[in-house]
Design goal:
mainly beta, 5-stranded antiparallel beta sheet, 201 residues, Jelly Rolls
């Protein structure tokens, strides 16, 4: 299991780095001093942000875990270093060191009909907790037709986050009861967090 988790993180890290090196990408930048905002990052600003490489390699891979904690998703560790931690109900991920973090989230929903409705609205929301406040922002959403046979829909979100020690991330999914929890290998709903740079001031 540990080998598979490491392989998954390595593969995901490669995908992340390809995306990051694009010349002009819209990223969501979050810091404890400001409300999350969308910002255009060009090659120069990207280079400045990553001019201090991480002092230690840090990454965390978690798969979704069934729970009854409202709309917040609970997580189960698949491969995490000690610089990340989950709270008691497994719904909040805390970073223990400041830095620039790359976060990728994928949620898989079942579209099979279970009533009279013919379509459904899917939503993935990120809840970010820092020292002064807690904020929520939409990561992804979609409207889909329900089907007679089993069919899946995926929501994915990609974030570049400037975080300090003690900052927390939670994921809110709607409708939570349609998230697929039973996939074993490969699991289809997960979050990957990779620390790629120290804070540069």
């Amino acid at each position: 299991m540990a080998h598979t988790a490491r392989a998954h993180v390595t593969w995901m890290s490669a995908v992340i780095m390809v995306a990051v090196t694009a010349s002009c990408v819209t990223w969501l930048i979050v810091s404890k001093e400001t409300i999350p905002r969308v910002k255009i990052i060009n090659g120069t600003s990207m280079a400045n942000m990553f001019r201090v490489p991480p002092s230690t390699a840090q990454h965390c891979l978690l798969k979704v875990h069934n729970s009854t904690n409202g709309n917040h998703l609970a997580w189960e560790e698949e491969g995490c270093v000690e610089n990340f931690s989950l709270n008691d109900d497994k719904t909040s991920i805390t970073v223990k060191e400041p830095g620039v973090y790359l976060v990728y989230v994928q949620l898989t929903y079942s579209l099979k009909k279970d009533g009279n409705s013919s379509n459904i609205h899917l939503n993935l929301t990120v809840e970010f907790t820092y020292t002064e406040d807690k904020v929520e922002f939409n990561g992804a959403f979609d409207n889909r037709q329900l089907t007679e046979k089993e069919q899946d829909a995926h929501l994915t979100a990609f974030f570049l986050l400037k975080m300090t020690a003690g900052n927390k991330l939670s994921i809110i999914a709607y409708p939570k009861n349609r998230i697929k929890y039973d996939d074993v290998r490969p699991f289809s709903s997960y979050i990957t967090i990779v620390r790629y740079a120290d804070l540069s001031g």
